[in-house]
Input
Amino acid sequence: MGGKIIHIGLVGNPNSGKSSLFNCLTGLNQKVGNFPGVTVELKVGEAKIDDNLWAEFLDLPGTYSLYPRRHDEQVTYDVLLNEEHEEHPDILVVIVDASNLKRNLLFASQIIDLKIPTVVALTMMDLARKKGVEIDVAGFERELGVPVIPINPRKNKGIPLLKKTLSQVMASLSPNSIRNFVPDALWGRGTVQAIKERLPQLSDYKALHLAFNYKELNINPSIKRVVEDSIKDIPFNKTLSQAEEITDRYARIKAIMQQTVVEPDPLQRTLFTDKLDNVLLHRRWGYLILLAVLFLLFQSVFLIAQYPMDWIEWGFVKLNSFLSGILPETWWSDLILNGVVAGLSGILVFVPQIMILFGLITVLEDSGYMARISFLSDRLMRSVGLNGKSVMPMISGFACAVPAIMSARSIENRKERLLTILITPLMSCSARLPVFTILIALVIPNNYLFGFLGVQGLVMMGLYLLGLLMALVVASVARWFIRIKERSFFILELPTYRSPRWGNILQTMVNKAKIFVFDAGKVIMIISLVLWGLSSFGPGKKMNEIKAGIDHIKSLPGTDQQLADNMYQTLKLENSYAGILGKSIEPVIQPLGYDWKIGIALITSFAAREVFVGTMATLYSVGEQDENELRLRDKMKAAKKKDGTPVYTLASGLSLMIFYVFAMQCMSTLAVVKRETRSWKWPLIQLVYMTGLAYVMSLIVYQLFK
Output
């Protein structure tokens, strides 16, 4: 990468098209992390602006104004107001939704007045035209005093012109607009002048915000002292100044729109979105449609992923067979076959399902339906002591509890936030998906009800809904112990329905697959190798006794050598370190229908739930001989207890599914709960109540179905 690198911040209201523009500009050259010191997501990507200029784009959290009310809005505020912040941008691109100009222009006008070099990107122009809104872009640009570029990131329209404009702005790197958005504004005038006498480099508006919030802002202490000294003797009413500012800005916005925007009579036509919402948000049909959408989602995970999963399994069976034929019979050959290859198969076989699930979820988000799910759920949330803001972390929990718990920071009410954190791990995350799918394939027949309702898909949806239902029950009970006294309100902007951006969906699928393979995969592989060691070795004296006993049996006339070898492998596994560990907890888990191998999986999967499958792959590979032509599901289906009965029956399979629906089984989640609550009290409470709930419910299910 050559040329100069500049830092460009993308800012705008939520649902204005900011993330679409970020994805369009950066493609796969992006990474996700956290802002230093906080848990708000940081998305950074790189893109080439021209032959000599590269830019690092920062997707700042969406916000409605420069008066932050949520934690993520505070992050944007800190980045913009503090020039010494490591993420402070050289240039800002303000994304403005052309179909909601009045609301979007409030924030845009505040950004312009900060006098950071700014470009306005007008999105949703096609939707504005459908509403009958016509914008004089040249006049609009003249009134705002900054470049205005119409774009459509979903179709890559206007992006070359936007890049060219950014290059031109970078060449001058001076404030685009000399005048303030509201000429001769009087808000806090005396205070602003006093600050600028000592800090003349500041814009009027930035000086006003320093007067508002210099104590809270993480800025240079010397600047804080200057601001404090400048205004200590000047009477200043923050609330009155803010109210006057908002009133004046909206008056100026109204004047600009009268000159540059043609709008139809609001009663003249009803948009397609409104007509569709009348159906999808109906008080009865809306919930039935939601259940149908969820069923199709989970059924598709099975139907579409079945073929690529079969191909991957077939490939690993052939690879295992090929390697076992050419490798010598040594310990390292066994490590490769039953440690590395078995671990890899336990990772890669579930990549198609992970990709399909996240692809379909992204379709729901891009189309605008995911926000409707939040709206439909608000009444239910309020009945158990939460509010609609809890829905998004809970829905995010279907992907992963770690970022979902972090996103609960958007809930202002501390007790509601704590309740949300406590119940979010009960959402069935993607890590449970490999466990559910292999167990459902084992014990649930692939039949159809009424010719089109797949039983396996219904069971999968039932497991997800069971976690959601139990989360609501737990919240309803816990609210009596965590009393909520403050009133809170749920305000949600419903985005318009849009065609999904297929490139963005494909990119999300690839990114989620990479995260699963390289993050979860590393844990699975390490545990698979450790398990191979624990399963292949044991106390030396005991192992020698087993070897001597089998050698004696094989030396007897008429002995079936293959049967003797299989007996040796079984005894070796049972008396290995892994076998000893599993058998030590077998009395506790036997009432649930589990054997000692499942016990080992329960222990190892505490690192990450999806490790269950890798553990099974390793244990059944180490414990069997001449089974190279069998898939893991076939090996598990053939597994027998000492009395000859199958290990995986309908009762034990359902019991194990229920255990994984409710059990914590995730160290990362406990760690992030501790970080968010700043106490070990709440993660320990989670661990105890979820483990107890999992054990009791699994016991009940096993006793009912055995």
About this structure: Residues 377 and 512 are 26 Å apart (CA to CA). The longest helix spans residues 285-326.
